[in-house]
Design a protein that fits this description.
Arginase, Chain A; 39% helix; binds zinc ion
C-alpha cells in the first residue's frame, strides 16, 4: 500500500508574525523529515487544488465564507480572533488547505492509492460553522467529510481527531449529523475548554488530563474508539492529525511519542481495510515542535503504509 501526500507551495504563504507558533517552517520540517527518512521513495507526492466557495459552503455559513473573502488583506494583516490572523497569502493558503482534503478524498475514492495525507496549513479543526478560531480559518476535515458525503453519497464517515486540543469546530459542525462518527482525544481542562460534556451517541470524546502518556491514550482508544468504529462500519476514515500531544511539544502536556502515532495509523488502516477498501485520509492539524512534528508525521505515514 502506498500513500499519496497532498500539499501546495501556497500553504507556505500564510505568513504569520515571528512570534506565532503556527508558522510556515512547520511544513518545511515535515518535508525535510520525509526526505531524510527515505519515505519519499515510498510515497506519491501531488500538488493540491484550491477549494471552491461551493465546496466550503457545505461545511460553513455562506455568509462567513463570503466575509473571509471580502476581508482578506492585500497588505499587512488582520486578526480574525486573538490567535488567528490573515496576511495577503492567507486566503489562498486556506483554500489550498481545504482543497487538498477534497483532492485526497477523490484520490482514495477513485485513484490508485487508498491512503492519503495532507501536509497543509492553516489547520482547520477549531473553525466552526461561522467562526475562525485557534489558528483555523476553514474546517478542512469537515469540508472533506461533506465532499465525501455529497459527491460519493457516503452515509457513514468516521473522523478521528487526536490533536491535543479538542476539535470544537468539527464537533459543532457535525453535532446533529449522525452520518459522522467523531472520536476525539484531547487534554482537559485546556484550550478551548469544550467537549467534556458533549452528549451525542455519534460523538465519542476522550478528555484526558495533563501528563497523559501513550499507554493510557492507547488504552482509551482500544476501549472506547475501536469497538464503536467496528460497529459503525465506516465507508471512509478521515483523520484530524495533530501532533501537538508529542512529549517534546510544549504547546501542551501530553507525552505521546512517534510510536503512538504509528500505532494509531496502523489501527485505523486495519479498520479501513476491513470496512472501506482501505480508505484513509489524514490532514495535518497542530504540532509546533518542528523536530518531533517531522518525525511524528513520518511515523504516522509509515503506519498507513
Ligand atoms: Zn492542537
Amino acid at each position: 500500500m502506498s500513500v499519496t501526500v497532498f500539499s501546495h507551495p501556497q500553504c507556505m504563504q500564510h505568513q504569520v508574525n515571528e512570534f506565532h507558533p503556527e508558522e510556515p517552517a512547520r511544513l518545511s520540517a515535515i518535508n525535510d523529515q520525509i526526505i531524510r527518512s527515505g519515505l519519499e521513495l515510498a510515497i506519491t507526492q501531488k500538488d493540491g487544488t484550491p477549494a471552491t466557495k461551493a465546496q466550503l459552503y457545505r461545511a460553513h455559513d455562506p455568509a462567513y465564507v463570503d466575509a473571509i473573502f471580502a476581508k482578506a488583506p492585500q497588505e499587512g494583516h488582520i486578526w480574525l480572533d486573538p490567535d488567528t490572523l490573515m496576511t495577503p497569502g492567507s486566503l489562498d493558503a486556506a483554500l489550498y488547505a481545504a482543497g487538498c482534503g477534497i483532492n485526497a478524498v477523490d484520490e482514495v475514492m477513485q485513484g490508485d492509492n487508498q491512503r492519503a495525507f495532507c501536509v497543509v496549513r492553516p489547520p482547520g479543526h477549531h473553525a466552526t460553522y461561522d467562526t475562525a478560531m485557534g489558528f483555523c480559518i476553514f474546517n478542512n476535515i469537515a469540508v472533506a467529510a461533506r465532499h465525501a458525503m455529497q459527491d460519493y453519497a457516503l452515509e457513514r464517515v468516521a473522523i478521528i481527531d487526536f490533536d491535543v486540543h479538542h476539535g470544537n469546530g468539527t464537533e459543532a459542525i457535525f453535532l446533529d449529523d449522525e452520518r459522522v462518527l467523531l472520536c476525539s482525544s484531547f487534554q482537559h481542562p485546556f484550550y478551548p475548554d469544550t467537549g467534556a460534556d458533549t452528549q451525542r451517541p455519534h460523538i465519542i470524546n476522550s478528555p484526558m488530563p495533563a501528563g497523559t502518556d501513550g499507554n493510557s491514550w492507547r488504552a482509551e482508544v482500544e476501549q472506547h474508539w475501536l469497538p464503536a468504529l467496528e460497529k459503525f462500519k465506516p465507508q471512509l476514515v478521515l483523520v484530524s492529525a495533530g501532533f501537538d500531544g508529542h512529549a517534546e511539544d510544549d504547546m501542551a502536556n501530553f507525552h505521546l511519542r512517534e510510536d503512538d502515532y504509528r500505532w494509531i495509523a496502523q489501527r485505523l488502516s486495519e479498520l479501513a481495510d476491513k470496512h472501506c477498501h482501505g480508505r484513509v485520509v489524514a490532514m495535518l492539524e497542530g504540532g509546533y515542535d518542528h523536530s518531533s512534528l517531522g518525525r511524528s508525521v513520518v511515523a504516522f505515514i509509515k503506519g498507513l503504509i
